Amino acid sequence: MFTIGCHLSASKGFKNMGETALSIGANTFAFFTRNPRGGAAKAIDEADVQALIELMHEHNFGKLVAHAPYTVNPCSESQKTRDFAHMVLSEDIKRMEYLPGNYYNFHPGSHLNQGAEKGIELISAMLNDIITPEQSTIVLLETMAGKGSEVGRTFEELKAIIDNMKYPQKIGVCMDSCHVSDGGYDIAKDLEGVLAEFGRIIGIDKLKAMHLNDSMNPLGSHKDRHAKIGEGHLGTEAFINIINHPKLKDLPFILETPNELSGYAREIKLLRENYQG
Ligand code: FE
Ligand code: FE
Ligand code: ZN
After folding, report:
1. Rounded to the nearest 5°, which phi and psi values hold at 6?
2. What is the tens place of the pLDDT at every residue in 122-158?
């Protein structure tokens, strides 16, 4: 099944996101679990969540890919910043259980001056403190562009975190096309090679979702500036290859391109028309 959607605003509640997704031809979506800059989460309206679950069922939605706020940094050198990350991640993962069996994606963080190894250790310790074997939510580490001291630019760094997990079945990876290209993996011209590398280092079964973004910058630029599909250095054909690849074609695809809803609707239509199943 082709599962495609985009980032939607959660401000009007859960059912509203489902209806908005339908109105633009989507059958999944991403949303920030709270304000992307952090802050308190709204109380869960259980009836509203139930209405979304029914809508998703009725319209054959794929898995949702929620996104943690950007301010979460589990490997900061500041204890206060790490405490905040711990609070947000643990609260959000509990809240995700109202929508059982979906994905919760986060940026592994920036190690600042501590080095990637220390960063990996801090991230792993925090995840092990939060993730329970009972939870139905799978936590996804996002592949990063390698801006500043971001952890997760290389598949090896992500693998090191996964290897430290007490409950590895509760963790996966969300591959962001802009980030991997900016990180130095040539997903546009060598998709096969990048997936083979991912398979060799991490294991392809750990790849659970894709963020589809073109990049304003060339391969290896470490910038993380998203472009609309076909308007960046990756190009439309790269995305047609990604959505049709036998190892990827059944994953949820989430657009995080700089668009209003009408722009997302156009990109969803373009990709749907080029999906061969
Ligand atoms: Fe992200
Ligand atoms: Fe992303
Ligand atoms: Zn990004």
Report:
1. -145, 180
2. 999 999 999 999 999 999 999 999 999 999 999 999 9
Active site residues: 37, 67, 70, 107, 142, 176, 179, 211, 224, 226, 256
Ligand lying nearest the CA atom of residue 70: 1
Given a contact cutoff of 8 angstroms between Cβ atoms, the answer to whether 3 and 62 are in contact is yes
Fold classification of 3-274 (topology level): TIM Barrel (3.20.20)
Q: Considering the chain, what percentage of its residues have pLDDT values greater than 90? A: 96
* Alpha carbon distance 158, 5 (integer Å): 25
Both tokens of 216, joined, read 């304003």
Give pLDDT tens digits for 243-256.
999 999 999 999 99
- In sequence order, the β-bridge partners of residue 133 are none
pTM listed for this prediction: 0.97
Task: Report the candidate in 89, 43, 39 with the shortest Cα–Cα distance to residue 66.
Answer: 89
From residue 106, give the alpha-carbon distance in Å to each of 36, 85, 109, 158, 225. Answer: 11, 11, 8, 12, 17
Please count the CA atoms within 13 angstroms of the CA of 161 that sit on its side-chain side: 33
- From ligand 3's centre to the CA of 172, what distance in Å? 18
